[in-house]
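Lecture 7 notes. Example A: sequence first, then its C-alpha cells.
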Amino acid sequence: MRRQDTPLACCIALLLVSSVACSGLSEKDGGDKELSGTRITVAGAWTGSEQKNFQKVLDAFSDKTGANVTFVSTGNNVSTAVGGMIEDGDAPDVALLPQLGVLGQFERNGWLEPLSVSAREAVDANYADVWREYGSVNGSLYGVYYKVANKSAVWYSPSVFAEANVGRPTTFAEMLSAGQAISDSGLAAFAIAGRDGWTLTDWFENVYLSQAGPEKYDALAAHELKWTDASVVEALTSLGKLFKEDHLIAGGREGALNTDFPGSVEKVFGTEPEAGMVFEGDFVAGVAKDRFGKAIGQDVSFFSFPAAKGGIFPIISGGDAAVVLKDGKNSAAGMKLVEYLATAEAAAVWAKLGGFLSPNKRLDIHTYDSLTTRAMADSLIAAEDQVRFDMSDQAPASFGGTSGASQWRILQNFLRDPSDPESAAAELEEAAAEAYQD
C-alpha cells in the first residue's frame, strides 16, 4: 500500500529539503546515498602509502554514495590471488589488474563484466585513445586506468650532481659519463633494485624503445618479433655497458641483486646515501617523500630517461586497470565505483596527496602536489598515443610478471653476468615462446 503524506510528514520533508539546500549538499557532492548499506570489495597489489591514499579515494566514494568499500591487498601476484578468490567463491567486486596479459586472461576465463555505458563515455571523454585500447580485449572495454606510472624517469640528488659538477644528461652515453663523475666524487652512480626483477624489465624496455623504435617495440611485445632479433641483442649490449661497471652500482652487481625497490630509493635519498641516481617510475617521489621526508623538487629531482644515440626519448607507462568481476557479490555497485574512478573528481583526491599520476586529461594539472609531479603528468598527457605500455605487463604472466621466473630471472642473471647478450636473448626467446604458446 502506498504511504499517504500527512501534513506533519510534509512539514518534515520540507524541513529536510531546506536543510539540504542550506548545507549545500547535492547529488554531486554526497547528498545522494544511492548505495547506502552496500558493501563493495576491491582487490589490488597496493600496500603502505599507496593503499592509504587509495583508501581516501574509496572514502570519498563512500561519502558520495553511502557504500561501504573495503580494500584487500593481494601482494604482487595479483592474478594468482584474485583467481584463487574467484575459484573459492569469494570474488571481489572490483580488481586492479597490473598487466595486460592478466586482463586478457581474465577475459578469456569469462570473469570480467564489460564496462557500463557511463564508464565507456567517461573513458571516451577523459582519456587518450591509447588508454581505451589498453583497457580493451577484442574490442570490448573492461578496464579503467585510474593510476598510471611514467616509467621513463631517472631520479637524482641535486646536491650530489652539484658536488660532481654534472648536469642532466640527454643521451645514454652522457648518463654513463655523469655516473663516472659521481663515482669519482665518492658515491656510486646508480642504485639498482635487482632483487625485484620487474625493475630490470623497465631498464631494458626504455633502452629498447629508444634504440629500436615504437614499431619494433610493439612487435616484440606481441611476440611477433623474436627475442633473438638483432635489436634485442643491441639493447642488451647497451644495458650491459652499465651493468658491467661494478663500481658504478651501489654494492656492485651482487649488492644490486640483494636490493629491493624501496631499498634502491633509500640508497639515494635515505639518511646515508650510497648513490646519486635511481631509475624507476614517478612513484619514486612518493617513497622519497613519505619514507625519508625529502622535498620533491629540492632534495629530489628527475630527468627523462635519456635517448640512445640517434634514438628517441622513450615514454614507457604502466598502470592498474580497474575491472568489475562477474562473480562479485555486488558487481553492480562495483560498476558504480569504476565509473567514479574514470572521473577527474576521483583523480583529484589522490593527486593532492602525491605519489600519483593520472592519464585523465580533464584533471587540472595544478591539482598535483608539486611542480615536479606536474611536469611528469604533463609529459605523459602530451605524449598521448605515443606512450607505450610496459612490455612485460603486456606479456603472459608466466613470462613477464612472475617473481623468480622467466624474464625477471633471466634479466637478473644478465645483471649478475652481462658478458653474453646473445645468450641472454636466446634464453628470453625460449621462455617467451613457451609462454605465448600456452
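Example B, a different protein, same format:
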Amino acid sequence: MPTPVSISLKPPMGGTPDYRFSERHARILDAFADTLIPAGEGFPAPSEVEISGFIARYVTPAGMEPKWYPRLAAEQIGARLDSLADALLDPDPRRGYEAVRAFESSEADAFAVLRELVYFGYYSHAAVVRAINLQLAAGQDYRQTPQPAGYLEGLEAWDQESLAKVRGTYLRTEEVVPLAFQPTFAQKGLSA
C-alpha cells in the first residue's frame, strides 16, 4: 500500500489565486491606489483596472504564514487598510493624501510593498499599456508581452549575405569549465 502524501498548507509564491478582499477592503485599496496614481490625460484610475483584484493574488490567506514575496498576510493588510479607511473613503481627497503620506512615513517598508504592487499591477494592465501607446510618444512601441506582436517590429531583417557570415560553435558539456579556470588571453598568446 502506498504511503499517503501529506499536502502542504503553504501557499504558492505570492499568496493564492483564490484570495478575495472584502468589498470594503477592496474599496479602501482602490482608493489607496487612486491616491498614488491619479487618473487623467488618457490614463485610467487604478480602481478602473481592478487593482485590488490584482493585489489579492499576492495575499497569503488568514491562518497561513506568509513565506514568499511580498509576505502579505491577510490579517496584516486588513489591519493596515482598516487604519486608512476613514481618510481614504472620505469625500475630501486631501484627507486620503495625508493618510497615505503618514503611512509612508510611519511604515515605510509596508508602504513600499503596497506601492510596488500597485505600480506592477497598474502598469501591466492592458488598458494602461494602450494608454501608454496612445498618450506617450516614447511609448508607442511598448508591448505588454512579446507575443503576439513579438519583437520582430524592432529587429532589422537578416539578409542571406549576413546569415552566411554567421558561424556557430558547439562546446561539449564535458569541455565546459568554470570561468575562474579559463586561460587568460596572455596564456593563449592573444594579448594585445
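Note on Example B: The two ends are 69 Å apart (CA to CA). Residues 1-8, 188-192 have pLDDT under 50 and may be disordered.
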